[in-house]
Amino acid sequence: MVNYYINNHNMTNYYKYLLIIFIIFFVVSCQNKKTFIYKFNNEQWDIQQDTIMFIYNANKVESSYNVSLFFRNNINYPYRNIYMFIDILHNHDIIQTDTLQYAVTDKYGRWYGKGIGDTKDNYFLFEQNIKFQKVGAYTFNITHGMRNNPLIGCEKIGLKISEND
């Protein structure tokens, strides 16, 4: 009976230490990145209603960052690619404007991206090794540049900003 208590007590301590290590790992690994996600209503991206706005607060000007886009679509998405317009603003001043084009299928209509069933997650590198010139809030405004509006088959869009080590 005493031996069972000692073994059970040691296992409880083991799980406590394992949980603490996991929490520390999770906190440390999440400090160098920020992820934003926007979910579209009715799986449609309407440019009159859905100018996507993500605000990132830069507090380090000496670091460089990678900026990636996330696009989740389903099989109702009618195109092989997606065009997006991105404006980056600082203090309401546009500091960068880009037109982006990314493929979501190959020439035979096979979906790129990962996912199960009808949904595919696509990740695209937008900017690599960029530096924010000033501390403060940076606004990323994203709209689609496709002919159809609303654009069907769009489930989510996201932006990830990762600090380089």
Give a structural overview:
Helices cover about 20% and strands about 50% of the residues. By secondary structure, it is of the alpha+beta class.
Essential attributes:
single chain, 165 residues, alpha+beta, Jelly Rolls, 4-stranded antiparallel beta sheet, 1 helix, globular
Q: Runs with pLDDT <50, length 5+?
A: 26-30
**Describe the biggest sheet?**
4 strands, antiparallel
| Biggest sheet strand line-up | 1-10-4-7
Mean pLDDT: 87
**How would you describe the shape?**
globular
Percent strand: over 45%
> What's the CATH topology label of the largest domain?
Jelly Rolls
Total helical segments: 1
Architecture per CATH nomenclature, i.e. the level-2 architecture of the largest domain: Sandwich
- Structural class of the secondary elements? alpha+beta
Oligomer: single chain
Order of helices and strands: HEEEEEEEEEE
Q: What number of domains?
A: 2
Number of strands: 10
CATH class group of the largest domain: Mainly Beta
Question: Would you kindly provide a brief summary of this structure?
Answer:
Helix content is 18%, strand content 48%. The protein is of the alpha+beta class and 165 residues long. The radius of gyration is 21 Å and the shape is globular.
